[in-house]
Amino acid sequence: MHTAPLKIDYHRASQTLNLQWPDRVEHHLSAEFLRVHSPSAEVRGHGVGQQVLQVGKKAVAISGIEATGRYAIKIIFDDGHDSGLYDWTYLRHLGDQQELLWQSYLDRLKAQNASRESLFISLKQL
User: Fold this and answer.
1) How confident is the model at residue 59 (pLDDT cuts 50, 70, 90)?
2) Which residues contact 72 (CB under 8 A, 6 or more apart)?
3) What's 117's DSSP letter?
4) How many CA atoms lie within 13 A of 84 on its CB side?
5) Hey, how many other C-beta atoms are within 10 angstroms of the C-beta on 110?
6) Has residue 49 got a pLDDT over 80?
7) Using one digit for the tens of pLDDT, what is the confidence trace for 86-111?
8) Got the DSSP string for 39-99?
9) How far is 26 from 74, CA to CA, in rounded Å?
10) Residue 20: how many CA atoms within 13 Å on its side-chain side?
């Protein structure tokens, strides 16, 4: 298990959660990235191969962050999603593997002909 970040800041304007770790590594994780990689059962499913692809989350923002003991945070998103605890090890994994995880997500969207845009936004553009 990783130790806690030294600093956790959420920047509303850029919708980015910034983490500074004890080894001086910094990660900048977008709200969308965190939402689509939520550790909740709603997203991960209840077993291997049961992941639920999250679509239409491009404009999601973080509306709250709560400490959960000394090992995790709970992130509350403005789309109502608030389950799943982001422990330090998982947050570090997301940061360290961000590029690979993001590309995998984009590939899954493409394979399912899905979009990061919400249906509402897509209809407005028609």
Assistant:
1) very high
2) 85, 86, 87, 88, 90
3) S
4) 22
5) 10
6) no
7) 999 999 999 999 999 999 999 999 99
8) -SHHHH-SSTT------S-TT--EEEEEEETTTEEEEEETTS----EEEHHHHHHHHHTHH
9) 20
10) 6
